[in-house]
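From the shared-data thread, chain only:
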Amino acid sequence: QVQLVESGGGLVQAGGSLRLSCAASGRMFGIDAMAWYRQAAGKQRELVASITSGGSTNVADSVKGRFTISRDNAKNAVYLQLNSLKPEDTSVYYCHANIRVPEIGALEVWGQGTLVTVSS
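Structure, as tokens:
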């Protein structure tokens, strides 16, 4: 069974930094695009940043210049560096990946989510 496991969330003061990590495990042929989403209380889930297997990135305007997405293909991992955090960044952050698996083909997988809380 393929799964994504996230880590790195927590409580931080405004202006601080955090680094989120997400690693895929299980039987797979490879991972295509990976991404981070977030969902604040009472709001819809939104895309924060994405990265292709080749390293091309896309970052939401609301976090551009503050958040950086990266990946390590050898470790089947994706990271999100969060700098200059604001209280409005408080959300549950979810890792997402398109994973190629035996017999099924392409599979969309979500992590369990990690809570980031930014205090003012």
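The longest strand covers residues 91-101.
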